[in-house]
Design brief:
This protein has 21 helices and seven strands. The chain is mainly alpha-helical. It has a five-stranded antiparallel beta sheet. A two-stranded antiparallel ribbon has the order 6-7. The longest helix has about 50 residues. The chain is elongated and about 100 Å long. The termini are far apart. The relative contact order is 0.08. The N terminus and C terminus are likely disordered.
């Protein structure tokens, strides 16, 4: 019985000694706060390998420049009061106490140390943020803390990311067997940074078994990355196609249904973008608390501003030029120059900034190398919502019936009592308003300036002609097809060659099929 008691006493003493060894000491605190940078970093890494609450508080105080050195002691100073970092007791701050000096390297170590310590936080969000901050870590001194965090982690997703970080650290370690196991573990990663780490290690690796494991891991990682890149190119193509669709929808009405070659279509988009900018400014000045709702208010404003300008153009110029497409081209080109100069006079020649609302910031992480931005996702949805609205208006409403009737046979429509002049104005205003919606959407993904429309006018005409004049379905297929084709060709041949290749494709296609993807059928084809 005495022997059992003696054994328990020894165990308790050893446990207490172990706890004391891991607790913050005055010598350890001073070693972290003063001396050469390398020595301070070594002391810091040793302290956070098995931290206690005092260590965490002291590291945070050093990161906040709230520590002074007085002789052989480090003192935490806050609001003019000194505190012993080991005991937490209040102590006087001598006049000769000096501030610690933290260079950029030391501050980076403090940030990494604090992130490492958050791995043990009970808050999953803090642990996730800590893992994100340590994703590029390669220091073996972090392994004890990461192992401790792995043992305590219960969320499968966070645990998998911790294991990937540990494998990356072990990959550059001194043990060949561990390096081989680390390479095999990293083979399941789809992170671009993992490929970089594997390539760097492959250059310096001498062990043939480890080298073979790294090469196999590289093949697996690159295969996963290629899938992410393909999906990213596909989404970029759909995003570009949705923008082209928005731009071309208005042109499909003014050119496809009315036969007007409107070279001022890009400037009508520009008016919608500037209307969005004005609404943003009004919300910033008068309704700052509701700023995130400014874009919702800007949508109808952009539509009405461009539609009103379109109605004025139709009543003042276009109505005298129906049936003469080349003259409409020259007239609207002159109008586009006037509108550009008007915007330069009112808003200046420089681009203006339009901010995304908070709910359009960030994105959806689909793969480790693929994030879908919310602003692009919203624009894709918005484009198809506008498409549905236009299709319903043209195909299911009285106004759409009149527009189609006037387009197909103006004299008969007039004999049936349709006010053709008014319908022309409504149709042109509708196409112009849709151009304004396109400008509102473009303001969320690019610069807003006087030349905004110039980059899209040629592409929008190509979409309308390729899809089939007057065919909304053809416009959809052409816009999405050209967007996806352009992005895939960019990844293969570069932006300039991709643009040339797309233009050549359209020329060849129109030569073989002049009516476009969808041809008008019936008597109206003539």
């Amino acid at each position: 019985m005495f022997i059992t008691f003696f054994h328990r006493l020894i165990a308790c003493l050893l446990l207490c000694a172990a706890v004391q060894a891991h607790a913050l000491t005055a010598e350890g605190a001073r070693a972290m706060a003063a001396g050469e940078t390398d020595e301070r970093i070594a002391a810091l890494q040793q302290a956070i390998a098995t931290p206690d609450e005092a260590t965490v508080a002291f590291v945070r105080a050093m990161a906040d420049d709230a520590v002074k050195i007085a002789g052989s002691r480090a003192i935490v100073v806050k609001d003019g009061r000194g505190t012993d970092p080991v005991t937490g007791a209040e102590v006087p701050v001598p006049e000769e106490a000096e501030d610690i000096v933290n260079n950029n390297r030391m501050r980076g170590e403090f940030d990494t140390a604090l992130a490492s310590l958050q791995l043990l936080s009970p808050d999953a969000a803090q642990r996730r943020a800590a893992i994100e901050a340590l994703k590029d870590e390669a220091d073996e001194a972090r392994l004890p803390l990461i192992d401790k965090a792995l043992a305590a982690e219960r969320e499968p997703g966070l645990k998998a990311r911790l294991e990937a970080i540990r494998a990356r650290i072990q990959l550059s370690g001194s043990d060949a067997a561990q390096r081989q196991l680390a390479a095999q573990a990293l083979a399941a990663s789809g992170n671009p940074a993992t490929r970089t780490v594997l390539l760097e290690q492959l250059r310096s690796e001498q062990d043939p078994k480890v080298k073979a494991a790294i090469e196999a891991a590289l093949k697996s990682v690159e295969s996963r990355l290629q899938w992410g890149e393909r999906l990213g190119a596909l989404f970029s193509g759909i995003s570009l196609g949705s923008i082209l669709l928005l731009v071309a929808l208005g042109l499909a009405i003014t050119y496809g249904l009315m036969g007007v070659i409107n070279m001022a279509h890009g400037e009508l988009m520009m008016i919608g973008a500037y209307a969005t900018y004005v609404v943003q400014g009004l919300f910033q000045r008068y309704l700052p608390g509701a700023f995130d709702a400014y874009l919702i208010a800007a949508v109808p404003v952009a539509f009405l501003a461009s539609a009103l300008m379109g109605a004025l153009l139709e009543r003042g110029v276009i109505r005298f030029l129906y049936g003469r497409p080349l003259e409409t081209l020259l007239a609207t080109w002159g109008i586009s120059l006037m509108l550009q100069q008007l915007v330069r006079t009112v808003f200046g020649a420089q681009n203006v900034g339009v901010e995304n609302p908070a709910w359009m910031s960030g994105g959806v992480q689909v793969l480790e190398n693929l994030q879908l931005p919310w602003n692009r996702l919203v624009i894709v949805g918005f484009a198809f919502a506008v498409l549905a609205g236009v299709a319903f208006l043209i195909g299911r409403t009285r106004l759409g019936l009149f527009v189609r009737g006037v387009t197909q046979n103006r004299p008969i429509a007039s004999c049936m009592g349709v006010n053709t002049a008014r319908i022309d104005t409504y149709a042109f205003a509708l196409g112009s308003g849709i151009a304004g919606l396109a400008g509102c959407a473009l303001s969320q993904v690019g610069n807003v300036g006087p030349d905004l429309g110039q980059g899209y006018i040629v592409d929008s005409f190509m979409v309308v002609v390729l899809g089939g004049v007057g065919q909304l379905a053809g416009t959809v297929y052409a816009a999405l097809g050209l967007g996806v084709l352009n992005k895939f060709l960019e990844g293969w041949a570069g932006a300039v060659l991709a643009k040339i290749a797309v233009l050549v494709f359209i020329i060849v296609f129109i030569q073989k099929r002049p009516q476009g993807i969808f041809a008008i059928k019936g008597r109206t084809a003539d």
